[in-house]
């Protein structure tokens, strides 16, 4: 279409398109707009705009970065301006499949428009001699294959690729390679799958061959394998993910309990010693038949149903006979039981019943002998210094309720205050009238304590004791309590006997302290100063008492009672 | 009654002391033949030694890549190891055929030479790693373990060689290695090698040892795994 003469040609756009059809465009620095380069003829076309050319042709040469409507056809020979030296090639990778040979591949750079040839040169470690690649073709284009003769393990190769064309050369970056580091075998071969149907444990067997070039017979390399498989889902769902299994050095692998009816995809790969893993082998497929599941399902259903029936029956039987079974299997642990103390009563909250239950006949054994002397306290209502260092405790005996009350002499509703001189005495008086509960508690404790050795019997004859006086509310009681201070050698207790019917409401406002379960400290309005006063009616009997005790409103536990006297 | 008991006890003690057979002595464990214990065969010994060398190489691999990862991020390969390893003077076969061409005795001797040559340098390596704070103690422990392994491996290979000699598989040309000992890890220029260079060289040499042992085993006891 065009004259192949050098020079400037004016062409129409259609002709330009026709010319450009199939031609490659290369930018050439000599002609800065664009250059069409015909591969076969070596033509180059420089296209500039008409207007520029018309206006100033010279300018076009100086400044040729305009768009194109005009074609300049220039023909260059092979040494023309728009060719260039090649771009730098690049070594992409080197691999050794069996640790005896290796191959290196490179990627060419730009060719610069000219036929380019590539050469690979290498040097061995610490030697200056340069060698060229022994085989450019065995491994394909742009590769170099080192055969066994030319391969040395444990030596560093310094490899360079040179691209050269008519205009120049380009050197790739040098790469240092030790064959030990680039070992990557070919994938295993001939992977085949077989389904083995055994009764109890069906499985399928994966078998393969090692890559043909790896030499394990001489022990040069040791191959390790890895198997992976996944279930192929034909539906819309995604495939399940791969499961990998290490298979060691063996050439087969069993997959147990495959899913019936599933399609499996299996692949195997290998590696040599500490090298790189090979590519995965081509996939192998297997379909698991699913007729084996039917019979199994039936059996399973029957078994499950039977089990359920048996379970329900057992549960029913057990619920009926739970108690004896439970007793048989888990005998009840004997609980600590205080004879007479019933837990049911405790729950009911009626304390008097509880403690009445605790009182067994014969306890406390007070004054077994009837000829036991009972000392009497002289009770006077003057502020007599009492010896209150003595310990004493009050005990009272409950009247009436105790059928085996040995202290016959002691009338009902008596408070016995027994005093042992020389003992430390803490205040012991109880606000007996205070509550039946107190008295009951106290009477309950009387069981626990031992027999008082001495009894002082204080008898207030029908007159309320001071405690009663203290508490106006209680003063209505016409009963006189007898307080006995018991110098027994046990932990003291205060026992207050009370008439059957409490004359007063239970008033706890006087309680200043609770020392134990059954002892309350009642705060007297008069601070305790060691005075013990019992204000009774000034009867003779009352005065006989030592009155060594504190206001009856004040009750306190006694510490251990020493028996010294 | 107690007196008679005492007498009996005294008599027993006297018997034990006087009777030479009653004394406790040390006897070799396997003195009573194969029923006593399992004497490893040559194949077993080889297996053990090869496993040991595999572990040693894997340890050196780990250390080397750790070092490379943390201390040489620039991956400047050029001029990396153009210094010689101190074991370069030992002539080692550089491929499978060369290794197979060597006689058993020579191959065994090469292995032993290599292992011997690393005795001191590994100790030095551990010392220098332990003193630097850059390495954590885990790395310097690995270096110590590596040195121990090399030592044990050498002992193991010596035992294998001994067994082979006993079985008549080896000629007597495997000499003592005192001549090859005490090789200082100096590079060409005479400077001491750096830790990285030592690690690189040991990684390479441990790979060599592993490969040579495997070749030797499959040549001598090719029954299984070959």
TrEMBL record, chain A:
The chain crosses the membrane at residues 299-322. GO terms for molecular function: cytokine receptor activity; metal ion binding. Pfam families: EpoR_lig-bind (PF09067). Gene3D superfamilies: Immunoglobulins. It is a single-pass type I membrane protein. Belongs to the type I cytokine receptor family. Type 1 subfamily. SMART domains: FN3. Its main location: membrane. This is Prolactin receptor.
Automatic annotation (TrEMBL), chain B:
It comes from the Eukaryota. The keyword Disulfide bond applies. Keywords: Disulfide bond, Hormone, Secreted, Signal. GO terms for biological process: positive regulation of receptor signaling pathway via JAK-STAT; response to nutrient levels. InterPro entries: 4_helix_cytokine-like_core, Somatotropin/Prolactin, Somatotropin_CS. Pfam families: Hormone_1. Its main location: secreted. Coiled coil: none annotated. One of its GO terms (molecular function) is hormone activity. Residues 1-26 form the signal peptide. It is found in: Secreted. One of its GO terms (cellular component) is extracellular space. Belongs to the somatotropin/prolactin family. PANTHER family: PROLACTIN LIKE, SOMATOTROPIN,PROLACTIN. This is Prolactin. The lineage of its organism: Eukaryota, Metazoa, Chordata, Craniata, Vertebrata.
């Amino acid at each position: 279409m065009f004259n192949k003469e050098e020079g400037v040609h004016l062409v129409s756009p259609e002709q330009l398109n026709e010319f450009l059809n199939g031609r490659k465009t290369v930018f050439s620095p000599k002609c800065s707009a664009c250059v069409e380069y015909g591969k076969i003829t070596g033509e180059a076309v420089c296209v500039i705009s008409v207007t520029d050319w018309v206006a100033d042709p010279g300018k076009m040469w100086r400044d040729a970065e305009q768009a194109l409507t005009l074609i300049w056809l220039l023909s260059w020979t092979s040494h023309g301006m728009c060719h260039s030296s090649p771009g730098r090639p690049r070594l992409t990778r080197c691999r050794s499949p069996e640790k005896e040979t290796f191959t290196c591949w490179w990627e060419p750079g730009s060719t610069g428009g000219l036929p380019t040839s590539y050469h690979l040169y290498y040097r061995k470690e610490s030697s200056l001699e340069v060698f060229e690649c022994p085989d450019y073709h065995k491994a394909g284009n742009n590769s170099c294959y080192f055969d066994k003769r030319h391969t040395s393990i444990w030596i560093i190769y310094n490899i360079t690729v040179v691209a050269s064309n008519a205009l120049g050369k380009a050197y790739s970056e040098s790469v240092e390679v030790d064959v030990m580091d680039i070992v990557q075998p070919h994938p295993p071969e001939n992977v085949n799958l077989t389904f083995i149907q055994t009764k109890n444990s069906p499985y399928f067997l994966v078998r393969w061959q090692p890559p043909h070039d790896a030499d394990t017979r001489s022990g040069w390399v040791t191959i390790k394998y890895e198997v992976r498989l996944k279930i192929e889902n034909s539906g819309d769902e995604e495939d399940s993910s791969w499961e990998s299994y290490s298979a060691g050095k063996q050439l087969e692998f069993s997959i147990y309990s495959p899913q019936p009816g599933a399609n499996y995809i299996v692949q195997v790969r290998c590696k040599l010693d500490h090298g790189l893993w090979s590519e995965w082998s081509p996939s192998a497929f297997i379909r698991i038949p699913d007729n084996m599941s039917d019979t199994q399902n039936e059996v399973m259903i029957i078994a499950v149903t039977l089990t359920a029936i048996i379970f329900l029956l057992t549960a029913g039987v057990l619920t009926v006979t739970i108690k004896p079974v439970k007793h048989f299997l888990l005998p009840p642990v004997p609980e600590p039981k205080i004879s007479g103390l019933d837990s049911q009563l405790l729950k009911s909250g009626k304390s008097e019943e509880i403690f009445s239950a605790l009182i067994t006949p014969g306890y406390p054994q007070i004054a077994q002998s009837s000829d036991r002397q009972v000392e009497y306290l002289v009770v006077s209502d003057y502020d007599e210094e009492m010896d209150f260092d003595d310990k004493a405790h009050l005990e009272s005996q409950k009247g009436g309720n105790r059928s085996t009350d040995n202290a016959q002499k002691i009338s009902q509703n008596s408070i016995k205050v027994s005093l042992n001189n020389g003992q430390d005495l803490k205040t012991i008086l109880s606000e007996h009238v205070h509550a039946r509960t107190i008295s009951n508690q106290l009477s309950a404790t009387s069981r626990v304590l031992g027999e008082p050795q001495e009894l002082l019997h204080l008898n207030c004859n029908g007159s309320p004791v001071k405690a009663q006086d203290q508490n106006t509310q209680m003063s209505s009681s016409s009963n006189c309590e007898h307080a006995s201070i018991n110098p027994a050698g046990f932990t003291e207790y205060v026992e207050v006997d009370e008439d059957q019917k409490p004359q007063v409401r239970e008033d706890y406002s006087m309680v200043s302290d609770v020392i134990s379960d059954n002892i309350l400290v009642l705060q007297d309005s008069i601070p305790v100063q060691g005075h013990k006063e019992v204000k009774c009616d000034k009867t003779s009997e009352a005065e006989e008492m030592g009155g060594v005790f504190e206001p009856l409103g004040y009750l306190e536990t006694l510490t251990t009672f020493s028996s010294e006297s | 009654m107690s007196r008679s008991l005492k007498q009996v006890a005294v008599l027993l003690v006297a018997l034990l002391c006087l009777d030479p057979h009653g004394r406790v002595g040390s006897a070799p464990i396997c003195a009573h033949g194969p029923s006593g214990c399992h004497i490893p065969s040559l194949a077993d010994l080889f297996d053990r030694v090869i496993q040991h060398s595999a572990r040693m190489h894997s340890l050196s691999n780990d250390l080397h890549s750790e070092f490379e990862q943390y201390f040489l991020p620039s991956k400047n390969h050029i001029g990396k190891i153009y210094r010689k390893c101190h074991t370069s003077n030992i002539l080692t076969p550089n491929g499978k055929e060369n290794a197979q061409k060597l006689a058993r005795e020579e191959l065994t001797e090469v292995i032993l030479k290599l292992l011997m040559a690393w005795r001191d340098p590994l100790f030095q390596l551990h010392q220098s790693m332990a003193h630097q704070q850059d390495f954590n103690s885990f790395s310097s422990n690995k270096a110590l373990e590596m040195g121990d392994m090399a030592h044990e491996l050498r002992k193991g290979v010596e035992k294998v060689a001994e067994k082979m000699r006993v079985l008549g598989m080896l000629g007597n040309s495997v000499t003592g290695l005192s001549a090859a000992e005490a090789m200082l890890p100096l590079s060409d220029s005479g400077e001491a090698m750096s830790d990285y260079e030592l690690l690189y060289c040991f990684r390479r040499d441990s790979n060599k040892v592993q490969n040579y042992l495997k070749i030797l085993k499959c040549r001598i006891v090719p029954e299984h795994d070959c």
